[in-house]
Design goal:
The chain is α/β, with parallel strands linked by helices. The chain has 19 helices and 21 strands. The protein folds into 2 domains: 6-86 and 168-439, TIM Barrel (Alpha-Beta Barrel), CATH 3.20.20; 94-162, Oligo-1,6-glucosidase, domain 2 (Alpha-Beta Complex), CATH 3.90.400.10. A hairpin with a 5-residue loop joins β19 and β20.
Length: 496
C-alpha cells in the first residue's frame, strides 16, 4: 500500500453520480490527492436497510453506480479498497428467499446461521444474556418458512441482515466467491466488515473470542492467496486491536478519534501520548468514517468482569460525549442512542467538524495529528469537505449515522472545495504525501502533558508538529528536497 493519504467515500454521495463520476472527480479537482480510495459498498443494492452493508448480491455492482468494468477502470488510476461483509447478507437475497421457500431442501439451507446450530441443546437465559451485541436487544429474529415451519435466525445487526454460517461449506463458498470477484476486478485491499461477530459459540460472548481470531487468520490467508491485502474492522477494547494487528496486514486506529477529541476538550496530550507508545504501526489512521465516533475503543473492557481499564479515566467518557453534544448544539444527541434507530450503542454520531464546534483551526490541527501518526491516513469524504451535520437527512431517514452521510451534489462539491478550511486541508494532505520524512523514523519528543511534539526524519528530510492544547499555539514544519514549508492556522472560535 502506498504511504499516502487515502479517501473513503460512497461513490454516489460524494460524486452525485456513480463510479464513473467518482473516477472523474479523482482525476479532476482531487487529482493526485489520494494514494488509494476505499469505495464503500457499491454492491447490489446500495439502498437497503444499512446503506449497502446488507447486500442482496455481493458479487454484483449496483446498476445505479455502474458495473465491474467501472471498478476495474478506477483501479487502474488509484489503488482500490472494497468491503467484504463477512457476517451477514440481506434478507432480500435470492439465497435467503430460496431458503424461505424450500427450507432444509434449499441448496442454501446451511448458509444461514440458526439459533439451534449454536445451541443444539437449547439456550438458557444466561447463555442469551452472555451474547454481546452492538445494539440494544437480542441478536435473533424468528422467521416463518413457506411451509409454516418457524426458525430462529441470528441477526446481529438488524432483522434485514441475516447472519451467515461462515464455517459451513456453503458459507465458505459464498465468501470465496466474493474474494475471487473482487480480486479479478483490480481490488488490492479488502476491509473485513463485522468479522468480530462472525463466529458464535455456546456459552460465550460470540464476539472477538479465540475462535474469532483463528477464523480471522484462516480467512485472511484465503484472501492473501488471491493477492489481496487485508484490513480488519472491529470496534472493541483497545487491546483487541493490538492483538489483531499482529495477524493481518492492517487495522484501524479507532482509538485515535476520541483520544484527539479528549486532548482538545481536556487540554492535555497525556493519554494520547500513552496510546502512541503502544499502538500498532500497521494502522489506518482515521478521525471519521461512515460510522460514528467510537467510545468503546478507549473505554474499559466491557467483556471482562475484572474491569480492565481503558485509555482514559472512566469519568472522562461521559464528559467527552457531553462536550460533543454541546459543540454540535445538541444535534449529535438527536442522532445517538435511543434518539435514533439502527444505532450502535458505543458510538456518537456527529461529523468530526461539528464535534470540534466548527473551529477551523482545531479541525486542521486534528488532521495534522492524524497525518503525523505512524500508519496510513484515511480521510472520510464528509471530513474532506469539513462537512456539517445533515439534520435533514437524519430527520428523513431516522437513522442516526445518516447525520454524517451527506449526499453532495456536484455543485456542492465544487463550492465546498473552495472553502479556506478545505483548501488548507488539501494543502496538508499534499505535504503529507510529498514529504519524504514520512518514510523515515518517527519519534515523540519529550514535552509537558499539555503539549504534543511529533517528528519524522529521513535523511535531510524532516517533518515536525508542535502543539500546545491549552491555547492551540502550534507550528507545523516540513523540509523536503531542501525546501522548507511552515504552516500556522489562524484562530477561529473556541473548543469545548
Amino acid at each position: 500500500m502506498k504511504n499516502k493519504v487515502q479517501l473513503i467515500a460512497y461513490a454516489d454521495r460524494l460524486s452525485g453520480g456513480g463510479l464513473r463520476d467518482l473516477h472523474q472527480l479523482l482525476k479532476g479537482p482531487l487529482a493526485n490527492l489520494f494514494g488509494a480510495v476505499h469505495v464503500l459498498p457499491f454492491f447490489h443494492t446500495i439502498d437497503g436497510a444499512d446503506a449497502g452493508f446488507d447486500p442482496i448480491d455481493h458479487t454484483l455492482v449496483d446498476r445505479k453506480l455502474g458495473d465491474w468494468s467501472d471498478v476495474a477502470a478506477l483501479s487502474v488510476d488509484v489503488d482500490l479498497m472494497a468491503d467484504v461483509i463477512v457476517n451477514h447478507m440481506s434478507s432480500d437475497s435470492p439465497q435467503f428467499k430460496d431458503y424461505l421457500a424450500h427450507g432444509a431442501a434449499s441448496p442454501y439451507s446451511g448458509l444461514f446461521l440458526t439459533l439451534d446450530a449454536v445451541f443444539p441443546q437449547g439456550a438458557t437465559e444466561a447463555d442469551l444474556a452472555a451474547v454481546y451485541r452492538p445494539r440494544p436487544g437480542l441478536p435473533y429474529t424468528a422467521v416463518t418458512l413457506h411451509s409454516g415451519e418457524k426458525r430462529i435466525l441470528w441477526t446481529t445487526f438488524t432483522a434485514k441482515q441475516i447472519d451467515i454460517d461462515v464455517q459451513h461449506p456453503q458459507g465458505r463458498r459464498y465468501l470465496d466467491s466474493i474474494l475471487g470477484t473482487l480480486a479479478a476486478s483490480g481490488v488490492k485491499l479488502i476491509r473485513l466488515d463485522a468479522i468480530g461477530y462472525a463466529i458464535k459459540k455456546a456459552g460465550q460472548s460470540c464476539f472477538m473470542m479465540p475462535e474469532t481470531f483463528e477464523f480471522i487468520d484462516e480467512f485472511a490467508a484465503r484472501a492473501r492467496a488471491l493477492g489481496l491485502e487485508v484490513l480488519v474492522e472491529v470496534h472493541s477494547y483497545y487491546r483487541s486491536q493490538i492483538d489483531i494487528a499482529k495477524r493481518v496486514d492492517w487495522v484501524y486506529d479507532f482509538a485515535l478519534p476520541p483520544l484527539v477529541l479528549h486532548a482538545f476538550f481536556f487540554k492535555t496530550a497525556q493519554y494520547l501520548k500513552a496510546w502512541i507508545a503502544q499502538r500498532p504501526r500497521n494502522a489506518l489512521t482515521v478521525l471519521d468514517t461512515h460510522d460514528g465516533i467510537g467510545i468503546i475503543d478507549i473505554g474499559a473492557d466491557a467483556l471482562d468482569r475484572s474491569g480492565r481499564p481503558g485509555l482514559v479515566p472512566p469519568e472522562d467518557l461521559d464528559q467527552l460525549v457531553e462536550t460533543i453534544h454541546a459543540n454540535s448544539q445538541g444535534q449529535s444527541r438527536e442522532a445517538t442512542g435511543a434518539a435514533a434507530s439502527n444505532l450502535d450503542i458505543y458510538q456518537v454520531n456527529c461529523t468530526f467538524y461539528d464535534a470540534l464546534g466548527r473551529d477551523d483551526r482545531a479541525y486542521l490541527l486534528a488532521r495534522a495529528i492524524q497525518f503525523f501518526m505512524p500508519g496510513i491516513p484515511q480521510v472520510y469524504y464528509v471530513g474532506l469537505l469539513a462537512g456539517k451535520n445533515d439534520m435533514d437527512l437524519l430527520m428523513r431517514s431516522g437513522v442516526g449515522r445518516d447525520i454524517n452521510r451527506h449526499r453532495y451534489s456536484p455543485q456542492e462539491v465544487e463550492r465546498e472545495l473552495q472553502r479556506p478550511v478545505v483548501q488548507q486541508l488539501m494543502q496538508l494532505i499534499r505535504l503529507r504525501n510529498d514529504c519524504a520524512a514520512f518514510d523515515g523514523e518517527f519519534s515523540v519528543l519529550p514535552t509537558a502533558d499539555r503539549c504534543l511534539s511529533l517528528q519524522w526524519r529521513h535523511g535531510a528530510n524532516e517533518a515536525c508538529l508542535m502543539l500546545d492544547f491549552h491555547d492551540l499555539s502550534h507550528a507545523i514544519e516540513f523540509t523536503s528536497a531542501g525546501e522548507r514549508t511552515r504552516l500556522v492556522f489562524a484562530a477561529a472560535g473556541s473548543v469545548g
